[in-house]
Each structure stands twice: as structure tokens, then as C-alpha cells.
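Annex B. Sample input.
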Amino acid sequence: MSNQQRDERLKTLDKLRALGLDPFGGKFVGARPIAELLAGYNPTQEAPAPTVTAAGRIRTIRDMGKAAFADLRDSSGKVQLYFKQNQMGDALWNLYKCLDLGDLVGVSGELFKTRTGELSIGVKQLTLLCKSILPLPEKYHGLRDVELRYRHRYLDMIANPEVQDTFRRRIRILSQIRRYLDERAFLEVETPMMHPIPGGAAARPFITHHNTLDMELYLRIAPELYLKRLLVGGFERVYEINRNFRNEGIDTRHNPEFTMMEVYQAYGDYNDMMDLTEGLFVHLARDVQADLRLPYGEMTLDLTPPWPRRKYLELFRQHVGFEWDDRARVLERAAADHIPTGTRPIEAVAGDLFERHVEPTLAGPVFITEYPTPICPLTKAKREDPKVCERFELFIAHMELANAFTELNDPLDQRERFLRQLANKDEGMARLDEDFLLALEHGMPPAGGLGIGIDRLVMLLTNSHSIRDVVLFPLLREHRDLPAAEAAPEAAAAGAAKPAPGDAAPTSAP
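Annex B, continued. Sample output.
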């Protein structure tokens, strides 16, 4: 936008103050949601037109000289306003003449239908609640630049109503998850976000420092080890929905700060977690739509249970072409696929091959089960075949959405596995968590544990194809914003002044 547009609005601020008005208002009493006002309108010939009160943002203005129309929008919907000079009086008309697109106002007046049948408020009272110094994105072209949309999410939500719809659905999904688990006697808990020792996953942590205690801390990469302490303490069914932080890459499915849910059930195993996961996803899908055929991009996913279960090693053999533990062939294929090896553990390299060759085939929903024990340091091995463990991952639309174990509760075995992680210099393993091992030595009940990536789940249920579309404020590269007078170039076309009479014909008439 030009400096001139902003300067014109600043001059309007001075004009408002000269009229004795506060451009940034205060409490406004009596406003009802616009959708509620419109839904409750039931005119009869005998009844007088109802007087209603609403508040919201001015989105369009169509000036006709001594009368005008405007669209007022709040979070529930929009209504047309009708301003008429001889009905408002000079004082309120002068206030109207100071309005610009984007201003927040409160209005009262009679609700009526125009000749074209549009419900409108004939404004009798007008209160300026907040003057917009910068214009909004232009009505017809909106805010389309992806970088600007993510960086200025508030403008994205104003310009693109479907964005608000996505985040309202996210809020409902979270509410339904909590309801589902609460009804099954799970307790929602909160565990620390700053850990003295990173653990619970193989990931690179963010490091910070606490000045008073003079100690290094890590933003948590997973809450697992603290939730298991609660199992030791006697909380037999617990869950937590909160942020994890991993100092790693960013793409359409990864954000360094993301929302994870972890669930633990004492005296259960990974089969119980499979049933819980399937039941929860079906419940959420039915809340979104009537049936279980879920659209996602060009796919239609059938979530009708029961979902198929496939073994990790069989899929590896089928799609990669040899056994998972064939070291020479793993390294050969990794070199051909340009997958780095170096000093990395061979099982990590094989895991990359699985991701490269198998995961793209998993349209799902499908549970991948019985992962190799060496890549599952917190999971109980199968008694009949200790080379694999009691773990599954859920894939839908080629995305991993859930990860679950029968939890390892043998403290001696757990110590040995942690030591192997340390020797391999696995990310997220700085040193042994002796307090967690101490807790295990006091006895942790057999348990099933489950982790679900909430952001990816919301992507699935809202048909979104980037994690940034379901995170209100995704992490972006540092950007030196332009000065306020030059910011948000897509907003320029909105302008500061109302169109002159004749520039924009009114869409409705009383």
C-alpha cells in the first residue's frame, strides 16, 4: 500500500478526535452474533420491525451520497447495514463519513428486508470500536501469497473465511478427542516442557539455559518418560495433548513445534492401543461427516473398521527386495538411493529405505506391526520372536499418524538399550536418565502407549495438505517486515477512502 493511504487514515484519526470521539473505543454492550440475529428474524404484518444490536468489522462500503450500504461481518456471519443521513442525524452521519474498510463498529437499528430480499439493519446508533489504520486485503483477490498468509495469519483469517473454518474444526477435533478419552476413564495430565535430559524419542532437541539454577535444559522432544513415571505412581490411564519441539527440518508434514497426544493404559498392550486408535479415528471421522468415506486430495479413504494389519519386515522384503538385516545390501541400496550412511547405525539406514520405498505405498488406513527391536528402544520385544517388538504405526494417506508400543517395563533391559543408544550417539540421547530408570526399578505395570500427531490428524480430517494450513502460527524464516506504511502489499487495493458516488453501484436497495 502507499504511504498516502495510511496518511489519509491517520488524518481521519485526528478528525475523529476533533469530533470528541475515541477512535479505539471500549466495551460495547448488547451485541448478539449476526447469525443468531438473522436466524431469529420472523416478520409478520402486525409485529413492528425488531431492533437489533451487532458488532463486527466493516468489509465493504457502497456510498450513494446521502445513503450508503455496508457489509458488517463478525465470527458468525455477515449482515448488510443501511445508513441514511436523514434518519441518523448529522452527528452519526459525520461519524459514518469517517468509516473505512476494516473498521470495527457497533450498530443498533431495525432489522428489515430490502426489495431484493436481503436482511439488513437500518442503522440508528453507530459506535466506532476500533479504527483500522491499514486496509485489509482487497475483497475480490484476497490474500493469496502463501508466505504472507502464514506470516500474517490474522489477515489470512479475515480475507479467507475457509481458514477460520479449518481452525474451528481443529478446535472441535481436540474437544472430541478429550471427550472420547475422558469417557473411557483416561485422565488428562500436564508434564514438564523443559527437561534436564531429553528423552522419549530420537530427535535433536532445542537447548536453553536456566539462569537461576545455572543449568542447561531442553525443550521436550516427547513427554513419554514423564507419563510413564505417572504409571509407576498409580495413574493407570493418562493422556497429554501438548507441544513437542524438535530442532529438525521443515516441510509440508513437519514443523519444529508441533502438537502431540500421548496415551498410556496400565495392564494393556499394543493391541489395546490399536483398538483405541481405530475407535477414536472412526469417532472423529463420523463427527466430520455422515459416513466413513473420507475425501483427501484425489483419494477417497474408506475408514470402515477393521483396518488391515501388515508386518514391517514383510513389507520391507516386498518393496525393497531383500531382508532388513542384510547389512551389505542395505548399504548398497542406500548408496544407490543417495541416502547418507557414514557412521549412522545400520538400522537407521534401513529405516530410511523403508520410508523411501514402503511408505509411499501406504494409502491406508493400515497398521504396520512388529518393528525390528533394534529401532525400538522403549518397546517390549515379542516373547516368541525377540527380533521384533510389539509396536505399530498407523498410516493413512501415506502419512504416519500414530505410533504405539507395548511399553518396556524391565529396568535392566531398558538400561542396556539406553546404553546402546548412547554408544550410537542417537539424537536426543545426551546421557542416561537415571531418575527414569530408578522409577522403573520401583515397578511400572505392563502398559500400552500411544502417540498421535494432532497436526497431521487435523490435516487428514480437514483435507489439508500442508501442516502450515492447520497450525495457526507456523515457524517461518526470520523476516524483516516492511515498515507499517508499506506492509502487506496484497492489501493495497483495499484503499483508504470509500468509493465516490457512481464508482460502485449498490447491490441492494431498501
